[in-house]
Amino acid sequence: MTVVAFRTGTEVEVAIPLALQHLREGGLLAHPTETIYGIGSRAAEPELAALARLKGRGEEKPFLLLVSSREMALWYGLMFNNAAQALADRFWPGPVTLVLPGAEARLPEALRGPNGGIAVRWTSHAATATLIDRLDEPITSTSANQPGRSTAPGVGAILDMFGESVASGELLVLDGGVLGNVPPSTLIDCTSPEPRLIREGAIPLTEIRAGVGRLAP
Description:
Elements lengths: L2 E3 L3 H16 L3 E4 L6 E3 L4 H11 L8 E4 L2 H6 L6 H10 L4 E5 L17 E5 L3 H10 L3 E5 L11 H14 L2 E5 L10 E4 L6 E4 L5 H8 L5
Parallel strand pairs: 1-8, 2-8, 4-6, 5-9
Antiparallel strand pairs: 2-3, 3-7, 4-7, 5-6, 9-10
Helix pairs in contact: 1-5
């Protein structure tokens, strides 16, 4: 089965074992988040290369990681400076992605951006977070769209853009329904003591500054 219902509690419990098996066998996954649909995989080199091919972009552009707790990020050696700690305390789980240093030799270097950090977010989508928790490792994620096309609001658009991969069994789709018109996550670089805003998204900069004061970008 290539499209699996992922809305009610019962559907999630049925879907998670299928998704875990698919991921552990090296497959790719389309899944809902608290913002937009993402496509991702386990954080392993072959899967990252397959994800880059599916996405239609160069392998030099890294994908972010979704975790199900701050402890998961710490276990992989990602490091939180004062700003990152304050931002995570205030906005995690939620649509704020932090670019963090560390994780050398624990995560693929293909995830590391030009600034030396790895983008990570504790997702607040309960079903997707449960999946990650049961997998007991992060999954990579990127917006479910092809270059130049809008992000997929639901399964119909995912099938339209990635139908061949779905039909072949490479891409398993978790159908979380049609998502609202929510911007992608706010992206903040915390690789240096002074945080830097890379992309303003679902959480506006004014709210970031109200939440963490002088530790905001």
